[in-house]
Specification:
heterodimer, A: 163 residues, alpha+beta, Ubiquitin-like (UB roll), DNA polymerase, domain 1, 2 domains, 5-stranded mixed beta sheet, 5 helices, 33% helix, B: 802 residues, Aldehyde Oxidoreductase, domain 3, Aldehyde Oxidoreductase, domain 4, 3 domains, 7-stranded mixed beta sheet, 32 strands, 30% helix, binds FE2/S2 (inorganic) cluster
């Protein structure tokens, strides 16, 4: 069946079997491989995309469900010059990337988190990315990258917690 | 040493940009026209004889283009190192649930699936064994009859040789026995004031790399095949392919640009995946891509071995360690894979980095029908340290000593001798690590404060420590070398050619930094390339945290030779003598005020056919370990470290929250600060999972938790705040003094957490993981309740037939 939706700001039409997921549509039919597949059961977050402003696991969304809606993938997250935006730049600087397989999903989750909370706290950041698994980094440098972005966007530094 | 320019300074990972933009390609992402999809039929039972296997009906399924079995490979695809006991596709028998039996390639996934369903498979189930002790009984079902028979003959017919690993054999299901021998610990124990005798165990752990195993095989014009994979050593993949496909000179292995994690897990299973895809590509004449699903990956791939351990340690009443008698049983599963090597490393490290008068370690590697075990970060040391560092804590308590003081009193220092006869000659920073971690964790205050918590308090805090050592690189396992080339490439960048893989650990960046340091050019001047067996030199496997030392040194030497070439060219260009050339960054000066930039120099070299390309090989100093005597020099030197964990346990629910981890590691020299910190914190997250939640649940050989909804790994919410510091006791032959770090980072984490839980609750949990029940009740529900076996669908059809 033909599915029409807005992908990264562009009207898109694609002919796919009706029982495939959005993840498969993106990767197998549009060759948009920035969105990764790690479990296909909605547990790892590697397949995260933004659907009408909300983070979703694209492996749990059926392709026909996106008809007429707006989808943003990692390929649509860029700075004004087409290079990395400030969040992506912070990921590089903070060492938030190792193998990089979770990175697109993390960037997607963090993008929505920042949009929703403006200046999220450490707790909110942790909550915001806790649906995204990373086996390499131990998360700390990912949290730091997001905190770095908050600061650069005008947020205030949080007081150091002491246990 | 003069001031360093590039090393140890903040730097970005050289391959980060395309990862953060989502443009970097992984094996999962590769796609070429005409590509077929492959699927594998896997064993639905833990142990069976293959009575009938016919793939021809699969070929009649519309869309199916090729189907293969072990018959298609040379010598039935028999392979394996150090024990050649495995097959690219099962031959005669299957030995674990998930053992690959046949594979098909088809136009679509659905057709491939239908092809699998059409294969005629008849299995005769055999008795299976799931417990290491049961497996060693005389009447136990034998997994590898032929090997066992050959071994029995060999053992009776001659002397044991110690030159080769493989020749120290066991019998029946015992694949190897490994030992350390010093003195007579049993009689020494009877003289000790304080003696501990305790049993510990660790569970199977899944690597859980986010990218599952995959391979893309492409037939070539000369009748050969090129295979794209993400593995830990393209040359081992290559030699296994050549051996089992039988086409020397016609196989090429190329690493995909990026690999989604490995942690020791991208070896054997990837070699098999590569061979299956390659054979299907040869048979079909079409490119074939094989990607495992998460469930398939979790069921079929190897794990960290489960291990049972008995520790008997003795000390004087004032806390001086005297004797250790340690016995371990490693669950190798269906195949030997790396278990003989992981177990050897475990044997060497089982007693911890302490002085003993007498010490024996006996390690038995045992075949069972529980999947199969292989390499995983820490490679045996993670397993034994989880036990030994708890045992040390228990002994310290019996002596009435603070665990930190006890360790400081017994830990090895420069010039000391380890209990297998090795004198420590270089770079021993353990004491400094312990002292530093004591300070930064505020150990003394917190330990005293948490010890005073009233007995009725339900939410309790505790603090625990673990220290450890970890031998550098492969050690006496085998020849240990790397060979790198640095050559002029496009855009006047220098390409660093290596056979070592970077699946996220950052070795590409480390090599660029070292080249930059030697040559004096900015890091951006260097370009990395994925390993390609047609282009790069063999460097040995990317395992054992060996990249920085081996590859770092090879890079340093190659860069020095390249610098010589550049000076020669500069002298020629400026019409002066080489000693008169001066260099500042990317500018070269002559004695009479001549000045040429690197780009001008490169243009001159190109115009005058002066090659700018240098290669260099670096080898570890050779050492010897006697496998028969259990003594010698297993590793030239060691990484040392100590971690402190601070936990909060809710006694009403069993929930353990790790609040803080303080990690101090002696890494020789910090080369890539962001990378090394990432290695440590990442390792700690895997150690935290190992301590609290991770266990592959084998129920009569069937894995009960084959995806992330049931096999839980730490999320951001599980992680403590991690504070990392380094001790730099330079290794004389490490590149700029650097040592290993990737594996060691996770080794002490689990026992530090377990010791902290004990401090908080008074409950000693000797069996990992310390899940809710164990923390709450002191025992695991799994040990008391019999669950019915749920046959997690490996192949629905085959299951129904049985
Ligand atoms: S692939 Fe969708 S959540 Fe894992
Ligand atoms: S960087 Fe490898 S999974 Fe996150």
């Amino acid at each position: 069946m033909e599915i029409r939706f807005t992908l990264n700001g562009k009207p898109t039409a694609v002919d796919v079997p009706p029982d495939i997921t959005l993840l498969r549509l993106l990767r197998d039919y549009l060759d948009m491989t920035g969105t990764k597949c790690g479990c296909e059961i909605g547990e790892c977050g590697a397949c995260s995309v933004i659907l009408d402003g909300e983070v979703v696991n694209s492996c749990l969304v059926l392709a026909p469900q996106v008809e007429g809606r707006r989808v943003v993938t990692i390929e649509g997250i860029r700075g004004p010059d087409g290079g990395p935006n400030d969040l992506q730049e912070a990921f590089i600087e903070a060492g938030a990337i190792q193998c990089g397989f979770c990175t697109p999903g993390m960037v997607v989750a963090a993008t929505v988190l920042l949009r929703k909370h403006g200046y999220p706290t450490r707790e909110q950041i942790i909550e915001g990315i806790s649906g995204n698994l990373c086996r390499c980094t131990g998360y700390q440098q990912i949290v730091e990258a997001i905190q770095m972005t908050v600061l650069r966007r005008g947020g205030l530094p949080e007081k150091e917690e002491h246990a | 040493m003069s001031e360093l320019k590039s090393l140890g300074k903040p730097t970005r990972r050289v391959d980060a940009l395309e990862k953060v933009l989502g443009t970097g390609r992984y094996t999962h992402d590769l796609k070429i026209p005409g590509m077929l999809v492959a699927k594998v039929l896997r064993s639905p039972v833990p142990h069976a004889e293959i009575v009938k296997l016919d793939v021809t009906p699969a070929l009649k399924v519309p869309g199916v283009v090729a189907a293969i079995t072990s018959e298609d490979f040379v010598d039935h695809g028999n392979w394996g190192f150090p024990v050649k006991d495995d097959y690219m596709l099962a031959y005669k028998k299957v030995r674990y649930v998930g053992d690959p039996i046949a594979a098909v390639a088809a136009e679509t996934e659905e057709a491939a699936e239908a092809g699998l369903q059409a294969i005629v498979l008849e299995l005769k189930e055999l008795p299976a064994v799931f417990d290491v002790h049961e497996a060693l009984k005389p009447d136990a079902p034998i997994l590898h009859e032929e090997l066992a028979k050959a071994q029995a003959e060999e053992t009776t017919s001659g002397e044991l040789e110690d030159a080769e690993f493989i020749e120290v054999h066991g019998k029946g299901n015992l694949s190897e026995t490994l030992i350390v021998r010093q003195g007579d610990p049993l009689s020494k124990l009877s003289e000790c004031d304080v003696v501990l005798d305790a049993a510990y165990s660790v569970a199977h752990q899944e690597h859980a790399y986010l990218e599952t195993e995959a391979a893309l095989a492409v037939p070539t014009a000369d009748g050969g095949v090129t295979v794209f994979v993400g593995d830990q050593n393209p040359f081992i993949t290559l030699s296994n392919l050549v051996m089992t496909l039988g086409m020397p000179g016609k196989v090429r292995v190329v690493q995909s640009p990026h690999t989604g994690g490995a942690f020791g897990g991208k070896s054997d299973m990837v070699y098999e995946t590569a061979a299956q895809a390659a054979m299907l590509a040869i048979k079909s004449g079409r490119p074939v891509k094989l990607v495992t699903s998460r469930e398939e990956s979790m069921i079929a791939s190897y794990k960290r071995d489960a291990m049972e351990m008995r520790y008997r340690l003795g000390a004087t009443k004032d806390g001086r360690l005297r004797a250790a008698k340690i016995e371990c049983w490693a669950d190798s599963g269906a195949y030997a894979s790396m278990t003989p090597f992981t177990s050897w490393r475990a044997t060497i490290h089982a007693m911890g980095p302490y002085h003993y008068e007498d010490c024996h370690v006996d390690m038995m590697c045992v075949y069972t029908n529980n999947g199969y075990s292989g390499a995983f970060r820490g490679f045996g040391n993670t397993e034994v340290t989880a036990a030994s560092e708890q045992a040390i804590d228990e002994l310290a308590e019996m002596c009435g000593m603070d665990p930190m003081d006890f360790r400081l009193k017994n830990c090895v220092e420069l010039g000391d001798t380890l209990p297998f006869g090795q004198k420590l000659e270089y770079s021993v920073g353990l004491k400094q690590c312990l002292e530093r971690v004591r300070k930064i964790s505020d150990w003394d205050r917190k330990r005293a404060e948490y010890s005073r918590q009233p007995a009725h308090q339900e939410i309790r805090r505790g603090i625990g420590v673990a220290s450890f050592f970890h031998g550098l690189s492969l050690g006496a396992e085998g020849l240990d070398f790397a060979e790198h080339t640095i050559r002029l490439g496009e855009g006047n960048k220098f390409e660093i050619l290596t056979g070592l893989s970077d699946f996220g650990q950052g070795s590409r960046t480390v090599f660029s930094l070292i080249a930059s340091e030697v040559l004096g050019f900015p890091v951006e001047r260097f370009q990395w390339l994925p390993c390609d067996t047609d282009v790069v030199q063999e460097c040995g496997p990317t395992v054992a945290s060996r990249s920085t030392i081996l590859g770092g040194n090879a890079t340093r030497l190659a860069a020095m030779r390249l610098l010589t070439q550049l000076y020669d060219a500069a002298a020629m260009m400026m019409g002066c003598m080489v000693p008169e050339v001066r260099q500042e960054g990317e500018v070269f000066y002559g004695p009479a005020g001549q000045r040429v930039t690197l780009d001008e120099l490169i243009a001159y070299a190109r115009a005058n056919h002066i090659p700018l390309s240098a290669k260099a090989r670096w080898e570890m100093p050779r050492i010897h370990w006697s496998f028969a005597k259990g003594r010698g020099v297993p590793y030239v030197a060691y990484h040392f470290g100590a971690q402190v964990a601070e936990v909060e346990v809710d006694r009403r629910t069993g929930v353990t929250k790790v609040l803080n981890i303080y990690a101090v590691h002696d890494v020789g020299k910090v080369v890539f600060p962001q990378g090394i910190r990432g290695q440590i914190i990442g390792g700690i997250s895997q150690g935290l999972g190992y301590a609290l939640m991770e266990r592959v649940e084998f129920e009569k050989g069937y894995i009960q938790n084959p995806n992330f909804d049931t096999y839980l790994i730490p999320t951001a919410a599980d992680m403590p705040v991690v504070t990392v510091e380094f001790v730099e006791s330079e290794l004389p032959f490490g590149p700029f003094g650097a040592k290993n770090v990737a594996e060691p980072s996770m080794v002490p984490t689990a026992p530090a957490i377990l010791n902290a839980i004990y401090h908080a609750t008074g409950r000693r949990i000797r069996h990992l993981p310390a899940n809710l029940e164990r923390v709450l009740l002191g025992y695991d529900l799994k040990d008391t309740v019999t669950t019915t076996v749920c046959q997690v669908g490996v192949c629905e059809r085959a299951k129904c037939e049985l």
